[in-house]
Every structure is written in C-alpha cells, then in structure tokens.
Amino acid sequence: MRAEAQAHVDRITAALDLLRRFLDWDRALRRLDELNARVEDPTLWDNQKAAQEVMRERTRLDTAISATRAIEREMTDTVELIEMADAEGDEEMATEGVESLAALADRADRDKVTALLSGEADGNDTYVEIHAGAGGTESQDWAEMLQRMYQRWAEKRGFKVEIIEYQAGEQAGIKSATLLLKGQNAYGYAKTESGVHRLVRISPYDSSARRHTSFSSVWVYPVIDDNIEIDIKESDLKIDTYRSSGAGGQHVNTTDSAVRITHVPTGIVVASQNDRSQHKNRATAMGMLKARLYEAELREREEKASGEYQAKTEIGWGHQIRSYVLQPYQLVKDLRTGVTSTAPDDVLDGDLDPFMAAALSQKVTGETVAVEDVD
Fold first, then answer.
1. Model's pTM, two decimal places?
2. Under CATH, what is the fold of the domain 3-116?
3. Sign (positive or negative) of CA dihedral 119, 122, 126, 129
4. How many CB atoms lie within 10 A of CB 373?
5. For domain 126-365, is the CATH number 3.30.70.1660?
6. Given CA atoms 225, 229, 234, 236 in this order, what sign does their dihedral have?
7. Domain ranges of the chain
8. Which residues sit opposite 163 in a β-bridge?
9. What is the C-alpha to C-alpha distance for residues 167 and 175, in angstroms, rounded to an integer?
10. Mean pLDDT, to the nearest integer, of 325-347?
11. Residue 10's pLDDT is what?
C-alpha cells in the first residue's frame, strides 16, 4: 500500500486500539447485551431513576461500539478500494481513497476523544480558576495571558464564558480570576488543564530585557446540579465580603457585594463578584465550593481506581504540567505527554485541543501518547 495511505491506516488503527482498551471491549459487548435485555423488561420503568440510568449507559455503550465498528468497516472497505485502484492503474480512484482515509482518520481521532469523555461529570459546564504565582507583575501578566487563552479556546468551541471572580494585578495582569465555561463536555475537555503553567520570555517589564520565568496555577472543577448532595457544615465556613473589582471598570460597584468563602477543613477558597447582589454572589460561591469538594472526591476515586492513589496534596509550584517558551526559541511542551508545539502564539490564542486529547488518552494508556506536533 502507498505510504500516505498506510500512515492514515496507522492513525485509525491506533485510535481504534485505544477505544477498545478504554471500553474493555469484551466486557463492553457483554454489558451491552445485558442492558439490551433489561430494556426489553416491561418492569424496567417501574423505577424511573434506575431506568434512566440504564438507558444512559446503554446509549453510551451502543454509540461507542457502533462508531468503532463503523470506522473499522469503512477503513477495510477503503483500503480494498485503494488496492484495487492501484492494481488497475486508476490514479484518480486511488487518490480519492487516500483522501477518504485521511477524513476517516480525523473522524477516528474525534470519536476517540468523545468516547474518553464519559466520566461522571465530563458533560458538565466547568469553572476554570487561575492564580498568579510569586513574582509580582510578571506572574500576574502571565496569569492574564492564561485567562485569555482559555477564553479564546472556549469561544472557538462555541462555549459561553462568564467571569465569576476577578482580582486585578497591582500594575498589570491579574492576581486571580475564575471563569465559568458553559458548553457540552466543557469539564471533560478542560479538566486536563489543572496544574502549574510555566512561562519563559524576555520580560516587557524589565528595562534590562532579561529573560524571566513565571508561574501560574490553573484549577478546573465541574459545575454540579442539585441532585448531587455535598454536606457542608456552616461552622466549617469563613465568609468574607469585599468590594468588587474588574478590568476597565467591568463588574465594579461601590458596595461590598463580592463574597469569599473559605472551607476551613480543606483550605479551599472560592469567591464570586459576578452579581451586584451579595446574596446571589454568596449562592454562586457556595455552588463553587460544592463543586470544588465534588471534584476532589472525583479525583480521589479516579486515582484509587487506577491504582495510582497517593495522599492528597494541594497543587504546588513543583507540579508543572506545561512550559511555554517564547525566548530564546519558541516551544510549548506538555511535560506529561510530551506533546509539543512550535507555535506558542497559536496555543496562547486557544489552540489547546491536541494537548487536551493527548492528556485524555494518557489517562487510558498510562503512557505517553504519540500525537503529531502542532506546527
């Protein structure tokens, strides 16, 4: 087979292998048979909640299995078409076949990522919390660059973005910000971004034009609905009110309407200043606190299930997930997966999908996943 076609086949095969591994293929087939049998049971809907859970699981498995089989079938048919065209010397047909394989490889990659977004809260909206590290203006400017990066990424995906909390930097940038991203699978995609992000560049704030290294942390956690019960004792909370602030006068008012809640047992701090009503900001902050506690529980369960559980530690400045180098050369490198980009401007403009896809894949394989560099 011609090399170009073989490269597409390799991509498709890798995606299908990952899907089967993620689904635990033989177990998934058995489970789908069981669920199909339960759907035929006329007593299923006697318990509405249980029936809905059965239908959701059945739909998820059936969609993933059907998509995997369809891609495999189309790949086999297209390869046969290309081989036949080559044997007959029909270059036009062979070229069309290679183009079809390329499109199928793209589809396999998309289906792979979609299938990986099947966690308990992956389909939910999400909060993205950004905090500048030590270093004053330089780190605060970096934190604002990250804020813009996630806003641009969300907008490209068609998500709605709201600024829930914003603390301006002393001279430039931000001390912290919390974004609410609303869209299908917002948390599932963005959850891989939690960690410390490192910037290396010639500082625009240094008159000697020296190279600086800055750090900012990102924490991603899902919006949860009222059906998820999180027990929070009022005695465990420290609640402060303060005056809202914002960029260019945005979200600013003259009353102490902003609310900051500290959960004393865990040290988790959340804040909201999105509304002029202190009551509404308190309700929003309580929702954020519940979401943070829920995310911590999800993460602990995931780590235990994967056999990699360790004593929980707060994300610190040593837990770097990605480096962004702007000078003396240009490179963005994910330290978990090895995925790189030689176009940091594109990444900072929201081109994050290759990094997210590789991180999601790594959760299944436990290994660094080979993903093409982004030029």
1. 0.72
2. Methane Monooxygenase Hydroxylase; Chain G, domain 1 (1.20.58)
3. positive
4. 14
5. yes
6. negative
7. 3-116, 126-365
8. 179
9. 5
10. 94
11. 94
